């Protein structure tokens, strides 16, 4: 019988497979495991896993659709008025509870290629920031922005993909640019929004 070498099985894979089956390989001799198996390390849970929310737990109706921004699970959910479209996006959230605003608001304006100016409190915390960022790849609002009825608050894109899934904003909710582009097309002025 001719043996064919399977290049998909590595030496490490063979050793791990042997160890998992309770057999250790010696120098050409297989011996049974005589020591107690090592205890499995404790499983670490991801505390920021997405939690899917039902819009009915937050809104009385879906007039103009609904956007749910879950600060704890760092996710944005969208549901269309007729419930035919549902989307779930990972997001960035405010850095601290002091910068976080929770409650009900709505989309009052949509801007493709937004410009941005730091708020007065941002300038106090970051005096070296420029007073104005024109539209473009370095703009902190990314490619699209949904302006909310709360002054200075937006659901917007970001070119800094490291921020998504983290507490990294000054109060806004950030999405990957490709996700905010999709949400921008789905949401309309008047879409109800809840940050919770």
TrEMBL record:
| Range of residues in the leader sequence | 1-32
Q: Which UniProt keywords apply?
A: Cell shape, Cell wall biogenesis/degradation, Glycosyltransferase, Hydrolase, Peptidoglycan synthesis, Signal, Transferase
Catalytic residues at 156 (proton donor/acceptor), 172 (nucleophile)
Q: Name one Pfam family in it.
A: YkuD
Taxonomically, the superkingdom here is Bacteria
* Known pathway: Cell wall biogenesis; peptidoglycan biosynthesis
Q: Which SUPFAM superfamilies match?
A: L,D-transpeptidase catalytic domain-like
Q: What's an example of a GO molecular-function annotation for this chain?
A: peptidoglycan L,D-transpeptidase activity
Q: Which family does it belong to?
A: Belongs to the YkuD family.
Q: What is this protein called?
A: ErfK protein
**Species for this entry:** Neptunicoccus cionae
């Amino acid at each position: 019988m001719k043996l064919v070498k399977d290049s998909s099985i590595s030496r490490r894979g063979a050793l791990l497979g042997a160890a998992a089956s309770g057999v250790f390989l010696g120098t050409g001799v297989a011996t049974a495991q005589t020591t107690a198996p090592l205890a499995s390390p404790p499983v670490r849970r991801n505390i920021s896993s997405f939690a899917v929310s039902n819009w009915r737990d937050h809104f009385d109706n879906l007039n103009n659709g609904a956007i749910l921004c879950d600060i704890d699970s760092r996710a944005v959910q969208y549901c269309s008025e007729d419930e035919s479209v549902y989307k779930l996006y990972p997001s960035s959230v405010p850095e601290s509870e002091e910068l976080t605003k929770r409650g009900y608001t709505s989309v009052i304006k949509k801007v493709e290629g937004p410009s941005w100016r730091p708020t007065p409190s941002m300038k106090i915390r970051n005096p070296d920031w420029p007073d104005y960022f024109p539209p473009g790849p370095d703009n902190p609002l990314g490619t699209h922005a949904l302006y909310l009825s709360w002054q200075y608050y937006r659901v917007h894109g970001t070119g800094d993909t490291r921020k998504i899934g983290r507490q990294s904003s000054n109060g806004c909710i950030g999405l990957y640019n490709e996700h905010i582009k999709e949400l921008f097309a789905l949401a309309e002025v008047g879409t109800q929004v809840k940050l919770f």
